[in-house]
Amino acid sequence: MGIYSMCNLLGGLAFALFGMTLISNALEKMAGGRLEALLKKSNTSPAKGLLFGGLLTAAVQSSSSVMVMLVGLVNSGILHLGQTVSVIMGSNIGTTVTGWILAVTGIEADHPAARMLKAENISAILAISGVLLITNFKSDKKKSIGSVLVGFSILMAGMSRAVLSFHDMTDMSVMKSFITVLGNPFFGFIIGILFTALIQSSSASVGMLQAFTVTGGLTFSMAVPIVMGQNIGTCISSVISSKDANKNARRVSLLHLLFNVLGTVILLLIYCIADFFIKDKFVDVKVSFFGIAAIHTVFNILTCLILFPFRGRLEKLACMIVKDEKQSSNGEEVYSFIDLRLLSTPSVAIRESNSKCKKMAELAKDTIFEAFELIEKYDSAKAKNITENEDVLDMYEDKLGSFLVKLSSKEISERDGQSVSRQLHSIGDFERIGDHAINILQLAEEMHEKKLHFSEKAKTETDILIGALTEIINSTIDAYTTNNVSLAKHIEPLEEAIDKLINDIKAEHIKRLKSGECSIELGFILSDLLTNCERVSDHCSNLAIAIIETEQLSYDAHEYINDVKSKGNKEFQNEYEMYKNKYSI
Question: Which of 472, 457, 465 is CA-nearest to residue 440?
Fold first, then answer.
């Protein structure tokens, strides 16, 4: 009987953990990029940080996820250490919400209204509702809501199984011995730490403690030290996640640990004093599901009230313990390009990778524009900057590409999936624009070293071409960084006009070659310049198509180009004629 009961207990715990994971993932998926926006808004005031930390943790149903997210954001340089202190405190309060939800598992009453609140009844209703939403609706939001409902159903089913297991083990000698051990506050405290650290979920640990109350042997005096231990054990996730991070990211996990340890020490002293005076009146009363939830909530609220005024000192203490180590040669903090820990919260990871893509887009634009300037007047400083920028663009493509491939395997919303698709299609084009900037730089260097100059006619023509390229690049990058589909639709007719302009320049160049106005050596340079300019224009077209097609949940470049260039598309033809006249020689 003991073996079967233990198997049921472990099965219940497994169901509970899976249910909480399902809830957390679905809620995080629904929240999308708003999670990161909430965190970034939290730096406006400590009070907002406390509020946002609580709401964020209640929303994703996991303080561990929030802490890993904070470590990743700090390690990437997106948030600074001071912004996280109040968020961490709020997170501890937000994680107590789950205990109150699970408290309904312990409801026992014969009244029909009360019986509807019993776990098995709520679990069945939630499961049916969730499955109906998942199977009958195409909307990503409705499916996520269905996943949340199914998650809660699995969580409650797991808790019910755990309750039954503990109930079956009530009269077992091993259980009686265990309850006796819990009578020692020190052992209860240690058990709370170890069990929570093992499953890495304070909410699930509190849920198991709630289930344990059915044995009838758990009192307030036993439960309080266990809950305090659970609050320290939950820090293990942030401690593990900060491994190999920079010093400020390690300080985030240390702040979480310091907050819970200091809060425990202070409240444990207060509890011991109170226990001495009111022992017979309160602490030896049997504790219930709601009692455990109340202990968990009161402990975390009191800890925040006590330590909130000293958040600055906590930050200084963390800085004293974790010394300055990981720095660059110029003494600046070394940040991760984009931290892999952010993959644990895909919506935040998508927002940050998109931010990096936008920086890559701007860098590609600046690099190609500097290369154009060298055709007119060579500058060694600009040449060096172009080479350095191209190396950075290569690094962006390599690291962002790897990150996005890992991110694409995560469960994300349809909208987030569009964003990942667009980023994957775009980073290669940004990198290739940098390559063409290097090619143009080499042509400019050759002209500078050999003291070659284009004829006045050729210079006029290349100036017109560079003007057209400047417009298409500016429009493309603006469309990309603002996700402006309307602006992106203007790129293809301009690209077609640029192709026509390049063909006209080539034709004029052949005429000059025949008449002896241009040398063969300059002809090769001009031909290479035109080829690179045409390729840059093509990459702008690719980027515009990626913006348009991913917004429309499809990606077929050939089909799109055929559609817009069809003879019946008057809008395209009118724009093409306008650009052709604007940039003609």
Answer: 465
Residue 212 · residue 288 · CB < 8 Å: no
- As a whole number of angstroms, the distance between CA 251 and CA 82 comes to 10
Assigned token pair, 459: 């210079």
Backbone φ, ψ for residue 327 (5° rounding): -130, 160
**Residue 286, strand partner residues:** 219
User: How far, in Å, CA of 22 to CA of 149, rounded?
Assistant: 9
Tokens of 563: 């559609």
Tokens of 516: 């002896």
pLDDT of residue 347: 76
* Phi, psi for 219 (deg, rounded to 5): -110, 170
Amino acid at 84: T
Helix or strand or coil: residue 327?
Answer: strand
* Cβ atoms of 357 and 421 closer than 8 Å: no
Cα 3 to Cα 388: distance, rounded to the nearest angstrom: 66
Main-chain dihedrals φ then ψ at residue 286, nearest 5 degrees:
-60, 140
pLDDT, tens digit, 9 for 90 and up, residues 348-384: 788 889 889 999 999 999 999 999 999 988 999 999 9
Report d(CA 426, CA 193) in Å as an integer: 47
Domain limits, the chain:
2-321, 345-582
Task: Give which of 318, 188, 241, 328 is closest to 63, Cα–Cα.
Answer: 241
Which portions of the chain are predicted below pLDDT 50? 1, 111, 326, 328-332
For residue 400, the model assigns a pLDDT of 92
* Per-residue model confidence (pLDDT) at position 235: 85
Give dist(CA 513, CA 521) in Å, integer. Answer: 11
**Straight-line distance from the first to the last Cα atom of the chain, in angstroms, rounded to the nearest whole number:** 92
HEC profile of 459-494: HHHHHHHHHHHHHHHHHHHHHHHHCCHHHHCCHHHH
Question: In this predicted structure, what is the pLDDT of residue 181?
Answer: 78
- Length of the chain, in residues: 585
User: Class of the 345-582 domain?
Assistant: mainly alpha
- pLDDT tens sequence across 175-189: 677 777 777 888 888
Q: Helix, strand or coil for residue 118? A: coil
SS3 call for 568: coil
Which of 522, 354, 343 is closest to 444 using CA atoms? 522
Q: For residues 405 and 424, give the distance between their C-alpha atoms in angstroms, rounded to a whole number.
A: 8
CA distance 33 to 464: 42
Count of CB atoms situated within 10 Å of the CB of 376 = 13
- pLDDT value of position 387: 95
Give the whole-angstrom CA distance, residue 60 versus residue 31. Answer: 9
Q: Tell me the C-alpha distance between 344 and 294, whole Å.
A: 30
Token digits of residue 21: 């994971």
Number of helices (H) and strands (E) in the chain: give both, helices first: 26, 0
Q: Can you point out the beta strands (E) in 333-464? A: none
Closest by alpha carbon to 147, among 419, 412, 347, 344?
Answer: 412
**Spatial separation of the C-alpha atoms in residues 95 and 59, rounded to whole Å:** 9
* Rounded Cα distance, 140 and 149, in Å: 14
Cβ neighbours of residue 157 under 8 Å, at least 6 residues apart? 15, 19, 119, 120, 123
311-321 vs 247-278: helix crossing angle, rounded to 10: 120
pTM summary value: 0.73
Angle at 117 between CA 115 and CA 123, to 5 degrees: 110
